[in-house]
Design a protein that fits this description.
The complex is a heterodimer of chains A (171) and B (156). By secondary structure, chain A is α+β, with helices and mostly antiparallel strands. Chain A has helices at 3-27, 42-45, 66-79, 94-99, 127-137; strands at 29-33, 53-59, 83-89, 107-111, 117-123.
């Protein structure tokens, strides 16, 4: 194979790689509303659902972006009593992975209080997308059951504990 | 499926973690080495990259020569990392790279035409995606492999 052919071959590879990189970047986070009867139960999850919202995160041991998602969801669940976070290792839940057609990790399913899937997030899931999904699935602050003492509104700014990354000055 | 969920995910944070810019830097070097491999068709250069993948896969990414280069030459010029990363995913990516380039090298030794170029080309695309947009192709394949596995192991 001569030099020209090799150069053409490499050039083609670079074009393909750049196109794929652009595609990955452009897709970003894929968040969509789900209207169906897909449902997850406490029995399937192995733990109780959140009172209002449950985040079900599918992860794998080889997934680099699962860790930041886990941290954010952990914070959300710790900040609000009506939110739960359940992380499932895809490797150990092949049945759920198939049933909910999980093709990539992390995939986050957002369940309402009855366990119905209301939102689905995949790809480059960031903090903002998770907060938006929470606000969308959680019933508005004007729900009949509102008791002003307990229910946090959509902006969880009244956090008692300092969050990691927040500057805290003592003394 | 009782005790599986949290324990299997490295939720314990795997001691401290590594600087995530290290593996991306390594992926950049890998992409350059593989591009030169495609350009020259050199099986020796491919063999060198196979050896690098093997070290990263067997002993962890921190032991790879590219990680050493990062620590010696690049890291001192940068600030501390914003956050640390679990070393397991990049290590798995090294294993995928080792598999692809290793097979290509064996085929090349067996006399298969263009084995070096094709193997290096595939690995180049993966390394490029890792370096440029932090996308781990091998990690995505992992889940697809899991899904394709015929016998669902519900108990572990």
């Amino acid at each position: 194979m001569n030099v020209t052919n090799r150069l053409i071959g490499l050039f083609a590879l670079v074009v393909v790689a750049v196109a794929l990189a652009a595609l990955v970047r452009r897709r970003g986070v894929r968040a969509r509303e789900v209207t169906g009867t897909a449902r997850l139960t406490a029995a399937q999850l192995g733990r109780p659902l959140g009172a209002e919202v449950t985040f079900v995160q599918f992860s794998t041991a080889t997934c680099a972006t699962c860790r930041p998602v886990r941290r954010t969801l952990g914070e959300l669940a710790a900040d609000a009593t009506d939110v739960a976070h359940v992380e499932l290792d895809a490797e150990h839940h092949p049945d759920l992975v198939r049933e909910h057609r999980v093709l990539t990790t992390p995939t986050v399913l957002v369940l309402d209080r009855a366990g119905f899937v209301r939102r689905r997030l995949a790809g480059a899931i960031d903090r903002r997308a998770l907060h938006e999904a929470l606000a969308a699935v959680r019933p508005a602050a004007t729900t009949p059951t509102t008791t002003p003492t307990t229910t946090p509104t959509t902006t969880p700014t009244t956090t008692p504990a300092p969050r990691p990354g927040t500057e805290v000055h003592h003394g | 499926m009782a005790d599986a969920p949290p324990a299997a995910v490295p939720a314990t944070g795997a001691p401290a973690g590594i600087d995530p810019r290290g593996p991306r830097f390594a992926a950049g070097i890998t992409a350059v080495v593989l591009a030169v491999t495609v350009l020259t068709g050199s099986a020796w250069l491919l063999a060198a990259q196979v050896a690098v993948f093997a070290v990263g896969s067997l002993f962890g990414v921190q032991r790879s020569p590219y990680a050493w280069l990062y620590r010696r030459a690049v890291r001192p010029r940068l600030g501390p990392p914003a956050e640390l990363e679990d070393p397991a995913p990049p290590r798995f990516a090294q294993t995928v790279g080792l598999t692809v380039t290793g097979i290509a090298l064996l085929l090349a030794i067996a006399g298969v035409d263009l084995a070096v170029e094709i193997g290096a080309g595939l690995a180049f695309v993966a390394a490029f995606l890792n370096a440029s947009v932090n996308y781990c192709l091998g990690c995505q394949l992992y889940l697809l492999l899991l899904r394709a596995r015929p016998t669902p192991r519900t108990s572990h």
